[in-house]
Design brief:
7-stranded antiparallel sheet; alpha+beta; 294 residues
Length: 294
């Protein structure tokens, strides 16, 4: 991660069709996206100069905007080209891409029909999301009090900025107690995900993962499911209650930032990275490196 404030990084940011110096890419303090959370974004990894599954991320970005009742004024092809241009402009070989779209400041209030839809794309170097040493034995999670909401109360299938407020609160609380991240349940008390990654459990040699009916069906999640199926592992998507963690021997998180990360502790439950975890980590690393070399 950056060692200085992100607004002080050097480089260029693609902003509404124009490549501009990093420090000039600014939004007004009265932008609707800041006050009313009308903003969507993506997180993408760069491996060997290539953006992993860029097209899928762009499609999700466009769909997230539609779920928030606005349309990004660029086509998928234009956004893909802009992402690649920004990576090339900043000489990023291994890093992170952040496209973000938001309503501007033309109207200030709940209604925002006349607001301009802005799009910016920033890229930067990005190391391991979790401590590399912690990843060897598995990271530690603590269940948070905050719950993933009922789909009738929020646009839960969009990657919307407002949905991450409870993630920040949950991660801060977990880190204050010496944990690496938080486990989130949903409004029904079922296991959902961590603050920024999907979760899998190995139970009796099979991979069990929560059904993504109130949170994102992650692109890395789907990638790992495909890798697991190719290895002959059985995948079971279902409702999982917290007490079922007592039956699990291995646990992993999957996400763009987390990649494939083993979990060693969740509250009083203990897991040990085993053969399935090691295989999926290896297969994922081979996949992204092979794509980068292609």
């Amino acid at each position: 991660m950056a060692t200085i404030s992100y607004d002080k990084l050097e480089g260029s940011i693609w902003y509404n069709g124009e490549m501009m110096p990093w420090e000039n890419a600014q939004a007004h303090v009265l932008t609707h996206g800041l006050h009313y959370a009308s903003s969507v974004f993506e997180g993408e990894r760069v491996y060997g100069g290539e953006i992993f599954k860029l097209e899928e991320h762009t499609d999700r970005l466009l769909n997230s905007a539609k779920l928030l009742d606005f349309e990004i004024p660029y086509s998928a092809d234009e956004i893909n080209a802009a992402c690649r241009e920004t990576v090339l402009k900043n000489n990023i070989v291994d890093g992170y891409v952040r496209p973000v779209a938001w309503r501007g400041s033309e109207m200030m209030g709940v209604s925002a029909q006349a607001n301009r839809i802005n799009l910016a794309i920033a890229v930067w170097q990005w190391p391991s999301y979790f401590d590399p040493e912690a990843r060897t034995v598995g990271i530690k999670l603590k269940t948070t009090k905050w719950r993933r909401p009922d789909p009738r109360t929020a646009p839960v299938h969009s990657k919307a900025a407002g949905l991450y407020m409870i993630c920040t609160l949950s991660k801060h609380a977990a880190e204050a107690e010496g944990y690496d991240d938080a486990l989130m349940l949903d409004w029904r008390g079922q296991i959902a995900e961590s603050t920024g990654a999907n979760i899998f459990f190995v139970i009796d040699g099979k991979l069990h993962t929560p059904t993504p009916d109130c949170f994102l069906d992650g692109i890395t999640r789907r990638t790992v499911i495909d890798l697991a199926k190719a290895r002959g592992y059985e995948i079971i998507e279902r409702a999982i209650m917290p007490e079922e963690m007592a039956n699990a021997t291995e646990c992993i998180l999957t996400g763009t930032a987390a990649e494939v990360t083993p979990v060693g502790v969740i509250d009083d439950y203990r897991f040990k990275p085993g053969a399935i975890t090691a295989q999926l980590i290896e297969d994922f690393e081979n996949l992204v490196n092979r794509r980068a070399a292609a």
